[in-house]
Design brief:
Blueprint (H helix, E strand, L loop, with lengths): L1 E7 L8 H9 L3 E8 L4 E7 L3 H13 L3 E4 L5 E2 L19 E3 L5 E3 L9 H5 L5 E2 L2
Antiparallel strand pairs: 1-3, 1-4, 2-3, 5-8, 6-7
Bound molecules: iron/sulfur cluster (SF4) (2 copies).
Length: 130
């Protein structure tokens, strides 16, 4: 699984590039966040592939004129340090951090875009991104 930012310029923003890549490769691509207007589009996606298959997929996007940025590995939480204060929950832009029913912290890796906001928010430095 890889997290990738895809930046579409105005020349390609209205083309169905992502759908075509999914059709051609058969690999699942999940959109985590999307900011699109007539001039530009930015998608953060998770791609269920690694190694050569991932390279092939990223090259298909590049060939279509999409800029590709691979995002950092997702974060690690030191559960011994976490005091479940919740300070990281509301700043997280994707809802990847939340309380469980027992008020302990839950991290949903699939939603994380590696933005690092929670790393700076945590008062006990329980979160880091390698
Ligand atoms: S790095 Fe932290 S704040 Fe950013 S998306 Fe992931 S969990 Fe949320
Ligand atoms: S801010 Fe740090 S200590 Fe508080 S819930 Fe999040 S990871 Fe745990």
């Amino acid at each position: 699984m890889a997290k990738v930012k895809l930046i579409y310029s105005h020349r390609v923003v209205d083309k169905p590039i992502l759908a075509n890549v999914v059709l051609r490769t058969g690999v699942l691509i999940n959109i985590l966040e999307a900011k699109v207007n007539a001039q530009k589009g930015e998608l953060i996606v998770s791609i269920s592939a690694e190694g050569e298959k991932l390279k092939e997929i990223l090259n298909l996007f590049r060939e279509e004129g999409v800029e590709v940025q691979e995002l950092a590995e997702t974060l690690r939480i030191d559960w011994e340090r976490c005091i479940a204060c919740g300070a990281c929950i509301s700043p997280c832009p994707t809802g990847a951090l939340k309380f469980k029913e027992d008020w302990s912290l839950e991290f949903e890796e699939d939603k994380c875009i590696g933005c690092r906001i929670c790393v700076t928010t945590c008062p006990v430095k329980a979160i880091n991104i390698p």
